[in-house]
C-alpha cells in the first residue's frame, strides 16, 4: 500500500520526485523518502509524516540526478518513523518496496548471522541486505549483469508481495525493479524511463505505459526498458497509451479533491454510459461494455466480490440486476469470500468491483473463483490494473482518476457499470422485452442531469453540518436499495469525520438497534417515495416516539416526511430506478461538510489508504 517511483534519464530534480510522490500519496502517507544518485554518490533524505515533512529536506538533495527513487509509506512492519522510512541502504544497494515480505524473520536471522546490521524494524531492509549479499556472491560479468543475477537469486528466496525500486552505486545509470503481487507500471519518454506504483504518478511525463506482470524483473535505462522473467528469459510486450490528463488530477479550484470528485458524479456516470447505450435502438452495446466474450446466455448466477465503497455499490446493484435478469446475485466482501467453500462453476459469473483494480482481498477472491472454474469479470476504474489482468473480461468504469482517499465518484461510475451489466444480461437472455429495455435505457440517460441538480443541495447541507458535527454517534437507516446507500453514507461519515456511525436496514431497527434510540441519538433516514416508502415512514415514527432526532432524506416537496423530520433534505423528483444515484449525493456531501467543519484531513483521513494491497 505504499507508493514507489523511479527515474532514469537526462536528469530529474528533487521536485520531480516530490511531485510524482504527491500523485501517489493516496497509497500511503505516514512517512516518505527519496534517493538520488549522482557521480558524487547517493544522497538519501527521509522524513516521518506526510510529504510536506520531506519537502522541508529537499534542499539537502542534489539539484539534479540521472537516477533516483522515491517512496511514500503506509506502515505494515515498524512504526512510521524516519528510520523505518524507505529507501533502505546496504552497501552499494539502495532499495524501496511496496508489499510485505512474509518470511523476513528467517531471512533476518540468516543475515544477522552473516554480520549485517539492521537499522530499521521493517521487512524491507531484509531485501536490501539480501540483495547486497547476493551481489557480493556474483563473480561473473559487469556490475549490471551481476545485479541482474543477484536479483534473480533474491526473488527466489522471498515469500510475500513486492514491487521494488532499486539503485546500485556501481551502475550509476541504471534502475532496477522486480514485481510479485504488488502493482508496478513502467513508462517511457524521449531519453527517460520511469517506474511507479500507478500511472497517476507519471501522466505528466508520459502517456506510454506498460504494466509489469508478476515474476518480472525490469532494467530501466535512459535508452529503454528491458523486462525479463524471474527465470531469466527476455519478455517483450507493447506499451499502451492512457488518455488521462494532468488536469484530471488537479483540484480545479475546489478546496479538496473530495469535493471536486463529488461534483464529478454526473461526469463519471455520463462517461461510463457513453458508447455503451444506443439510444436509437434502445439497446446495450455489449462490446463497448467489455462483456461480449462472456457466455452471458448460459450463466445461472452472479457472484460479486468487492471491498469498502465498491462493496456497497455492488450490494446496491443486486436489487437492480435481479429485477431485470431474474438471475440470483450474491454479493460478498472479498476478504470473507475467500474463506467460504466455493460453489462456483462455469455457469457462474464472478464479478470483481474495484476502483483501484489492486485491492489484495478482491484480487485473491477473483483468482480463487477463476481457479474454481468460474467466468470472471473485472469492473475497475484504473486501466490495465492487476484485477483486470486476472479476469476473463474487463469493463472499465470511466470516472477518471480518483485522488481523494474516500471513494465518491467511482461509486457512481461503478453503480452505472453494474446497471449496464444487468441490462446487458437481460438483453442477451431476453429477460426484458424490447420496450422494457428501451424504457431503462431512456431512464439511464437522465441520470447525469438529475444528479447535477442534486448537487445543488451542497450549500444547504453545509449549513446542516453545523448542527451535526459535534455528535459522537449517528445511525443511518434505509429499506431496499436505500439500505446499501445508508451503509455507504455511514462509511463515508466515519472514515472522514471519525464520528461513529452505523447503518441498518430500516426493518431491522426493531430487532435491536432501536434500544439505542433516545433524545441523544440522531438518525439519518433515507425515505424517498419508493415501494417501501410507507414502511420506512412507520420506522421513522418509531424513532420519533422514542425521542430520536431525525434527519430525513426524501424527495422534494414531501410535506409528510418534512413534518416528521427535525431536518429534511429533498432531492429532485426521479424514477425509482434512478433514486439510489440521487440519495447518495446528499450523503457524500453530508460526510464531506461535517469533516470540513470538524477540521479533519478530508482527502487523506487518518489510518487509511486508497488502495489496500495487503490482506
Ligand atoms: C480502501 C479505500 C476505500 C475503497 C476500498 C476498496 O479501503 O479507502 O475508499 O472503497 O479500499 O477499494 P477498491 O479500489 O477495491 O475499490
Helix and strand content put the structural class at alpha/beta
Number of helices in the DSSP assignment: 19
List the uncertain runs: none
Hetero groups bound? 6-O-phosphono-alpha-D-glucopyranose
Number of domains: 3
Estimate the strand proportion.
15-25%
Q: Supply the CATH class of the largest domain.
A: Alpha Beta
Average pLDDT reading: 93
Largest sheet: 8 strands, antiparallel
Strands, count = 27
**CATH fold naming of the largest domain:** Glutamine Phosphoribosylpyrophosphate, subunit 1, domain 1
- Secondary structure: helix percent: 25-40%
Q: What topology, given as strand order, has the largest sheet?
A: 3-2-4-1-10-9-11-15
Radius of gyration: 26 Å
Query: Which shape, going by the Cα principal axes?
Result: globular
Euclidean distance between termini CA atoms: 10 Å
The CATH level-2 architecture of the largest domain is identified as 4-Layer Sandwich
Any idea what the CATH superfamily of the largest domain is called?
Aminohydrolase, N-terminal nucleophile (Ntn) domain
Describe the protein.
- This protein is an alpha/beta fold.
- It has 3 domains: 3-247, Aminohydrolase, N-terminal nucleophile (Ntn) domain (Glutamine Phosphoribosylpyrophosphate, subunit 1, domain 1); 250-432, Rossmann fold (3-Layer(aba) Sandwich); 458-598, 3-Layer(aba) Sandwich (Rossmann fold), CATH 3.40.50.10490.
- It contains 19 helices and 27 strands.
- The strands form 5 sheets. It has an 8-stranded antiparallel beta sheet.
- It is globular.
- The chain starts with a strand and ends in a 17-residue tail after the last helix.
- The structure holds 6-O-phosphono-alpha-D-glucopyranose.
- 6-O-phosphono-alpha-D-glucopyranose (G6P) binds at residues 307-310, 354-356, 359, 362, 405-407, 608, 610-612.
Amino acid at each position: 500500500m505504499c507508493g514507489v517511483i523511479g527515474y532514469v534519464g537526462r536528469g530529474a530534480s528533487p521536485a520531480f520526485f516530490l511531485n510524482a510522490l504527491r500523485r501517489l500519496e493516496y497509497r500511503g502517507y505516514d512517512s516518505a523518502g527519496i534517493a538520488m544518485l549522482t557521480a558524487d554518490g547517493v544522497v538519501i533524505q527521509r522524513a516521518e509524516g506526510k510529504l510536506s515533512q520531506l519537502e522541508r529536506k529537499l534542499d539537502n538533495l542534489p539539484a539534479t540526478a540521472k537516477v533516483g527513487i522515491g517512496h511514500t509509506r503506509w506502515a505494515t512492519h515498524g512504526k512510521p518513523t524516519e528510520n523505518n522510512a524507505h529507501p533502505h541502504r546496504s552497501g552499494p544497494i539502495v532499495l524501496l518496496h511496496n508489499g510485505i515480505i512474509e518470511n523476513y524473520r528467517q531471512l533476518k536471522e540468516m543475515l544477522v548471522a552473516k554480520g549485517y546490521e539492521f537499522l530499521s524494524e521493517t521487512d524491507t531492509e531484509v531485501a536490501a541486505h539480501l540483495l547486497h549479499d547476493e551481489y557480493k556472491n556474483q563473480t561473473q560479468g559487469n556490475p549490471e549483469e551481476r545485479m541482474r543475477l543477484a536479483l534473480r537469486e533474491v526473488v527466489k528466496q522471498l515469500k510475500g508481495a513486492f514491487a521494488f525500486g532499486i539503485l546500485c552505486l556501481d551502475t550509476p545509470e541504471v534502475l532496477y525493479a522486480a514485481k510479485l503481487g504488488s502493482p508496478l507500471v513502467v513508462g517511457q519518454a524521449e531519453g527517460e524511463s520511469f517506474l511507479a506504483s500507478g500511472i497517476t504518478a507519471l501522466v505528466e511525463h508520459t502517456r506510454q505505459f506498460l504494466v509489469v506482470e508478476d515474476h518480472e524483473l525490469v532494467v530501466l535505462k535512459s535508452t529503454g526498458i528491458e523486462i525479463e522473467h524471474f527465470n531469466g528469459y527476455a519478455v517483450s510486450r507493447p506499451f499502451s497509451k492512457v488518455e488521462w490528463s494532468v488536469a484530471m488530477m488537479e483540484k480545479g479550484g475546489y478546496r479538496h479533491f473530495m469535493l471536486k470528485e463529488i461534483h464529478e458524479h454526473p461526469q463519471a456516470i455520463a462517461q461510463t454510459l457513453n458508447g455503451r447505450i444506443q439510444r436509437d435502438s434502445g439497446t446495450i452495446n455489449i462490446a463497448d461494455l467489455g462483456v461480449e466474450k462472456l457466455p452471458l446466455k448460459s450463466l445461472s448466477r452472479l457472484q460479486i466480490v468487492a471491498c469498502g465503497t465498491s462493496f456497497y455499490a455492488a450490494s446496491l446493484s443486486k436489487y437492480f440486476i435481479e429485477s431485470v435478469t431474474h438471475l440470483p446475485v450474491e454479493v460478498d466482501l472479498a476478504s470473507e469470500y475467500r474463506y467460504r467453500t466455493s460453489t462456483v462453476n462455469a455457469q457462474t459469473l464472478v464479478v470483481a468491483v474495484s476502483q483501484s483494480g489492486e485491492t489484495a482481498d478482491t484480487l485473491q477472491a477473483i483468482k480463487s473463483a477463476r481457479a474454481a472454474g468460474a467466468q470472471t469479470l473485472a469492473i475497475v476504474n484504473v486501466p490495465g490494473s492487476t484485477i483486470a489482468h486476472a479476469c476473463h473480461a474487463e469493463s472499465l468504469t470511466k470516472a477518471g482518476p480518483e485522488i481523494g482517499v474516500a471513494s465518491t465518484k467511482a461509486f457512481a461510475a461503478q453503480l452505472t457499470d453494474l446497471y449496464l451489466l444487468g441490462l446487458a444480461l437481460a438483453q442477451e437472455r431476453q429477460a426484458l422485452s424490447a420496450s422494457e429495455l428501451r424504457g431503462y435505457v431512456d431512464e439511464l440517460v437522465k441520470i447525469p442531469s438529475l444528479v447535477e441538480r442534486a448537487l445543488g443541495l451542497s450549500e444547504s447541507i453545509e449549513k446542516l453540518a453545523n448542527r451535526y458535527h459535534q455528535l459522537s454517534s449517528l445511525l443511518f437507516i434505509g429499506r431496499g436499495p436505500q439500505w446499501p446507500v445508508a451503509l455507504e453514507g455511514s462509511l463515508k461519515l466515519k472514515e472522514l469525520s471519525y464520528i461513529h456511525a452505523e447503518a441498518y436496514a430500516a426493518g431491522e431497527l426493531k430487532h435491536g438497534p432501536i434500544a439505542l434510540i433516545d433524545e441523544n441519538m440522531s438518525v439519518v433516514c433515507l425515505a424517498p417515495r419508493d415501494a417501501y416508502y410507507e414502511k420506512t415512514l412507520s420506522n421513522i415514527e418509531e424513532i420519533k416516539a422514542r425521542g430520536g432526532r431525525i434527519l430525513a432524506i426524501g424527495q422534494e416537496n414531501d410535506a409528510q416526511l418534512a413534518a416528521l423530520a427535525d431536518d429534511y433534505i429533498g432531492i429532485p423528483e426521479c424514477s425509482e430506478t434512478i433514486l439510489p444515484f440521487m440519495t447518495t449525493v446528499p450523503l457524500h456531501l453530508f460526510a464531506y461538510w461535517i469533516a470540513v467543519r470538524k477540521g479533519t484531513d478530508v482527502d487523506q483521513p487518518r489510518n487509511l489508504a486508497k488502495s489496500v494491497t495487503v490482506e
